[in-house]
Amino acid sequence: MALNSLSGRFLILTAVFVMFAEVMIFVPSVARFREDYLQLRLEKAQIASLALLANDMIDAGLERELLENAGVYNVVLRRDEARQLILSSEIPAPVSATYDLRDPAGLELIRDAMLRLLRSGNDVIRVIGDPVREAGQLIEVTMDSAPMRAEMVEYGARILALSAVISAVTALLLFLSVRGLIVRPIKRVVAAMTSYAEAPEDARRIIVPTAGVRELRDAEVALAELQTHLSGALRQKDRLAQLGGAVAKISHDLRNILTTAQLFGDRLERSEDPMVKRAAPKLVSSISRAVNLCESTLAFGKAEEPPPALDRLMLADLVADVVEAERLACGDHDVSFSEDVPATLSIRADPEQLYRVIGNLLRNARQAIIASGESGEIAVQAEETDRDWIVRIRDTGPGLPPKARDHLFQPFQGGTRKGGFGLGLAIAQELIRGHGGRLMLETTGPEGTTFTIHLPKVVVELDAAAE
């Protein structure tokens, strides 16, 4: 509906405010009209009394005509400290109210006027005022209130009709002004946003600021800058996506090639040639690193990790499986494992994804301890609060290097060990965020490193959790 639009509601508000202003004018105007009406009756009564003073003897018909012309029943004039009934006739009813106009207060005039408008009957009232040109101390008349009220109603109707016309014209002019100065530019911005959303890569759809109103022009300029940056980011994202696809293909083929080379490297290690014996371990190590890079790149290069399939699982069983696999990978190295997970602790998570996260953290800790050449311990501890399940992986390794701390969870930058690429932690963080949780570095230093996983007990929207 038009009334639900900005211009429609502005039209209604304008009409209401103008009418409110007119009502504020109407009340004192009616009160002023009533005062002028009564003053006019006093002046006419004074003129009629002057005619009698000029000629002491007038017949009853002329006296009645003077009173009818003044619109009063009688006239009392005080002159020379004497109160004198100048003109008189029969009063049909007792006097119901007396009004003194010699020094009236504004609020009193407004109150009396509004009460008279609300009272529809005909009363006899007494009015006292000052004579014109100081022709006495005071003049007093009695009169009917009905004719005065009728003229007040007619006058008020004219004011309200004029106010309605003024309100309609003012509201229409403001409506047209708002529609031209505000609504149309806003619609243009909305249309530009809609058009840009259809094809954000098309630079021709970026809005060109043309608004004359400064605030709207600032909004258009800000929108144009946002669209320009977004278009550039989308183009860069497309290029990165294409590059990522190419890298994934290369990594896949390269991994197959390197796997074959790894097999030959294993055979070279069994050679009796001293030169080959010295070079073979380095060659195998380099090939293994290359294979790991290819596999990590393929894992990270997936378009998107699937949403977690949340299910109830016993955390102690899952941790035991991960720890057993890492024990086997230690070989002859002096690395011990400890588990402090309540046997009855049941959590809600994706078993496969949580296995990958905990396995990645344990593997990083194991490799850091082995690389230090010292013995060490890796501990897995779990607990729950009213809101979260908390899993801590603590090791006694050498701690994270400064570069890893500065770029933690950033792919290809946050590697936690020499020769690492930082993809494992980036993938682990993404998986935990998909659960609506957090993966944090709690402490790190020469005494060891601690990572903490927080998994919320409340089920939330995955998109909101990722944000």
Automatic annotation (TrEMBL):
Its EC number is 2.7.13.3. Gene3D superfamilies: 1.10.287.130, Histidine kinase-like ATPase, C-terminal domain. It catalyses: ATP + protein L-histidine = ADP + protein N-phospho-L-histidine. This is histidine kinase. SUPFAM superfamilies: ATPase domain of HSP90 chaperone/DNA topoisomerase II/histidine kinase (SSF55874), Homodimeric domain of signal transducing histidine kinase (SSF47384). Keywords: ATP-binding, Cell membrane, Kinase, Membrane, Nucleotide-binding, Phosphoprotein, Transferase, Transmembrane, Transmembrane helix. Pfam families: HATPase_c (PF02518), HisKA (PF00512). It is found in: Cell membrane. The keyword Transit peptide does not apply. Residues 249-459 form the Histidine kinase domain. It comes from Psychromarinibacter halotolerans. One of its GO terms (molecular function) is kinase activity.
